[in-house]
Structures are given as C-alpha cells and as structure tokens.
Amino acid sequence: MGVQKKTRKFAQVKRAIKKHDDRAKKDNNAPKQDKAKGDEVVRAIPQAPSNMFFAANTALGPPYHVLVDTNFVSHSIRAKTDMLKSMMDLLYAKCIPTFTDCTIAELEKLGDKFRLALRVAKDPRWARVRCDHPGTYADDCLVDRITKHRIYIVATNDKDLVRRIRKIPGVPIMKVARAKYVIERLPDHFDAGVIGLTTALRIQETLNRNQSIHLIARDFPNTTSLNYASPWAGAHYRPVPGSTPQAVREETQAKETYRYLKQLASSDVSSGVAVVEGIEHLENPPAEYLDEQSVRESYGHLDGFRRLGRDECPAGVRWGVRYDTVAINSPVY
Predict the structure, then answer these.
(1) Which tens digit of pLDDT belongs to each residue from 262-296?
(2) Omega of the bond prior to 63 within 30 degrees of 0, cis?
(3) In this structure, are 200 and 180 located in the same domain?
(4) Residue at 166 is within a domain
(5) What are the CA-CA distances from residue 16 to residues 12, 20, 22, 328 (Å)?
(6) Exposure of 273 by Cβ count < 10 A (0-12 exposed, 13-18 middle, 19+ buried)?
(7) What is the Cα–Cα distance from 317 to 313, expressed in whole angstroms?
C-alpha cells in the first residue's frame, strides 16, 4: 500500500501588480472632466479705506469715539478709575465711550458678579450702538464694526481681541495698565521742521515697545521741490494760540519741547541751539491772538514774555509780543 503524499498548504495572499504594469497606467483616452467652479480658490484682497495714508488713519480725531469691551469696564472698576476723566486725561480731548448691544448683553449674561460693571456700561452719558447681526459675541461684533468703520478707538484688555485688532491697520487700542489708561498705535502728526521732529523724538522716548511714532512727509530731503525747506535753513520756536482740542494738545507737547531745547542750549553750546530774543508783530491778528486767555496759555511758559504797547510797535501793527525763544542751526543740530 502506497504512502499518501501530504502537501503543505500556503496562505493565500492578494497579488500585487507592478507599477509599470499597463493596468496601473492612466487612460489618456478617457474624457477629461472639468473641475467644478465652486472648488476653485478665489483670492480676495480687502480694499483699504480711502482715509488710510500709509499706517496713519486720518479719520481719527477729536471727539474720539471709544468702543469699550466688557473686561475693560471690569479692569477700570478694579483700578478705581473714572472712565471718562481717564480717557480725556490720556488723549487731551473730548472722548465718547461707546457700547454695543453685544457688549451689554454679554455683561447681562455674566450675572451678579458683574452687576457693577453693567451699571457703569448703562450710564446714560455713554453712546449706544445698535447691532443687527445674529448672536451676542462681543469680540466678533467689535472686530466687524472697526473693520467696516475705522473711526473708533477700541478699549479692551482681552489678549485674544488685542491680537485680532493689531492685524487691522489704523485702529488704536486702549488698555488699563498700572491703574491708568495707556494707548497703542495712536497716530500723531507734527508740523514739518526740526522742531516738529524734536517733539516726535521726545514723545517716542516715553513710549513702550508696542507704540510708535509715524513721520509722514509730502516732500523728502532728496527732493528739489520748492515746497521743501532748504537743508541749510534755520528754525525758531514760535507758539500758535488755539482753543480746539487738537491745538491744546499740541501746546502741551510744544511746552515740553521748549523746555528740552532751552536746557540743551544752556548745557551744550555746540548743540546748534541758542536762546535769542523773539519779537512778533501782527497787523491783522486772528481771533485767537485777541483772546487773552488763549494767548496766556500759549505764551505764558516762555521766559521774558510780555505784551508790547502801542508805542513799542511800528505803525499799522495792532498786536505785538516779546519773549525769549530758541533758534536752531539745523545742520549742526
């Protein structure tokens, strides 16, 4: 009797074809299918507002409209600061705190813990902005509003919201820090000249790392235009009276510049700055020069300031003053 042969059974596996096999090649004769238009990625570049000049927003100006966030109210209460007074002390101008419906609704949802903040937010002195969008998320509401209307300063201490606002050019950010209000990226402008540049430099030395000064000019030193002053021209300090919030703010900055230049003239004779006698004669003075209060606030900080009598003025001069001013040799300075 023969012996039965036992064959070994192997596991069946899936057979793989080689990558060069004809069956793995793409059929070039197959009809091509057009991509659906809906799947195409469209690159959208947002249009910059016409009031934006480089990084400065020329639409911002007193009275300042300040959009207030929920946590900014809480930080103000914790720091025991008066909201309106602190804003005006910071900006040297009239301020209008503004609350949206979403901000009020968010404070109402937070319950009794924020009832004092809600009472402050509902103060009848503040402006109220109506919201017509669904939902009550304040952060999205504020970002959407300042993107469409760049006429606001946003007051918030929310780090995430600050990060979003910093991506929108031309929108300053107000915060509560060390029991006082501070502001980021508020554009400022100064009249052309070496004195205006000195004012900008003095302010820049007091700013923190998140703030900066933008110097904007129509004509630069490499131009030959008659609108640009000669690089060899001199300069002297001369106040300009005014009663508008912007004029009052510039007077405050100019007084600091005058003190700095006067100190520089006395401490360093090689600086190109010298104290000299300044005399002004006006035949047809504007209304601001005839206002004694306005003149006193503009000229009162100057050494040797006094009004000139009629016998001290030339014929036809209706207004005259005398004071100690600073003259600058621009190339040396």
Answers:
(1) 999 999 989 889 999 999 999 988 888 888 888 88
(2) yes
(3) no
(4) yes
(5) 13, 12, 13, 88
(6) buried
(7) 6
